[in-house]
Amino acid sequence: MSDAARPVVVTRAEPTDGGLSAELARLGLPVLHWPVIGIGPADPAEWEMHRRSIGTFDWIVFTSAHAVEVLTEAMPKPAHARIAAVGPSTAETLRERGWPVDLTGHGNGAEGLLGPLAEVGVRGRRVLYPASSRALSTLSEGLERLGAEVVRFAAYRTVGAALDVADCRSWIWRRGIGAVTFASPSAVIELERALGGADFERLLADAPALAIGPTTARELEARAVTPVVASNHTLHGLALACEALLRAIQPGSRSAQPEQATAPRAAKRLES
Question: Which of 119, 228, 233, 234 is the most exposed place for a label (fewest CB within 10 A)?
Answer without folding.
Answer: 119
